[in-house]
Amino acid sequence: MTATVQARPAEGYAGDITPQQAWDLLATTPDAVLVDVRTEGEWRLVGVPDVAGLDKQVVFTQWVTSDGRPNPGFLTELQAAGVTGDGPVVFLCRSGQRSIGAARLATSAGIAPSYNVLEGFEGAPGLNGIRDREGWKVAGLPCAEYAR
């Protein structure tokens, strides 16, 4: 069974979905893939989404390197991880901004449909500077420590 995704329209990729919509898509679509495009430091310090209960693994590929530069091997790394666009690809970053570029680039390379997760893993910081209002973690979706 495949989930019907009601994505918010976007230019250059399939659209934006909420963390819960991302989870539902991954849970109901066997060939759907989750790609976390944050930096390795973010994975280690903040944790990662846990889709093991869905009998899936997260693909970890940095959109930018730890020094803030674009990852020139991004598409090659996606393809090496088996992300081909044979099913939906869900891109996740910290707040839902970097993953837009990842979804656009993947779409332009024929890896589609590619979705961006609104709010990302942690969401944007609130007025107090703390990221505790939105995102995958705040939605109560499964998280784990990064182990590689």
From TrEMBL:
The record ties this protein, via InterPro entries, to: Rhodanese-like_dom (IPR001763), Rhodanese-like_dom_sf (IPR036873), STR4-like (IPR044240)
What keyword terms does UniProt attach to this protein? Transferase
The record's GO molecular-function terms, alphabetically, read: transferase activity
Q: Where is the Rhodanese domain?
A: 28-145
Question: Which Gene3D superfamilies does the UniProt entry name for this protein?
Answer: Rhodanese-like domain (3.40.250.10)
Protein's UniProt keywords contain ATP-binding: no
Recorded hits in PANTHER family, A to Z, give: RHODANESE-LIKE DOMAIN-CONTAINING PROTEIN 4, CHLOROPLASTIC
State the protein's name. Answer: Rhodanese-related sulfurtransferase
Task: State the organism named in the record.
Answer: Isoptericola jiangsuensis
